[in-house]
UniProtKB/TrEMBL annotation:
Family matches, as Pfam families: PilP
Protein name according to UniProt: Pilus assembly protein PilP
Length: 174
């Protein structure tokens, strides 16, 4: 009797192993992969290396102040930045990154308060320099600072341009 029970349990266990689990999934996978064939695209053709010869030794060095010296000697437009003066703190920043946040007035003299990207406030008056284009403050009003900048044009000559820095809109609403 024990053999009979053992034999029936063994056959039952083997029947469970023989039944195919997830047969519908395997059939679907076979159906979907029928038309697929593996194909690897060929590698692109490698172009031979052609070296580039740098031949700009005859061009002026953009990192030397020779253009400024030539402008002073030749007299071209007569405009050239003063490179001998000591730079002010606000000349280290782009003019676009500086914000006018207010004004101070003592008598008839108006000074502007300018906030730099480092978070510090600086007083600016007529004759002060700010921005990276040799910008000198020509006037200060309650709403804007007017600067005269000296920039290099496409021909290599120095030209003057007038720029204004307006009071920050967020500060006007306060």
């Amino acid at each position: 009797m024990k053999r009979w029970i053992l034999l029936s349990l063994t056959s039952l266990a083997l029947t469970g192993c023989l039944s195919e689990k997830n047969s519908d999934l395997k059939a679907w996978m076979n159906e979907q992969s029928e038309g697929l064939r593996g194909r690897v695209e060929p590698l692109p053709e490698v172009k031979p290396y052609q070296p580039f010869t740098y031949d700009a030794f005859v061009l002026p060095d953009p990192f030397r102040p020779s253009k400024m010296e030539l402008a002073k000697k030749a007299g071209g437009s007569g405009i050239a930045p003063n490179t001998n003066r000591v730079k002010e703190v606000l000349e280290n920043y782009d003019l676009e990154k500086l914000r006018m946040v207010g004004t101070l007035q003592q008598g008839k003299i108006i000074q502007a308060l300018v906030k730099a990207p480092d978070g510090n406030l600086y007083r600016v008056k007529v004759g002060s320099y700010m921005g990276q284009d040799f910008g000198m403050v020509t006037s200060v009003s309650e709403t804007e600072i007017t600067l005269k900048e000296i920039v290099e044009d496409s021909g290599g000559d120095w030209v003057e341009r007038t720029t204004t820095l307006s009071l920050d809109d967020a500060e006007q609403k306060k």
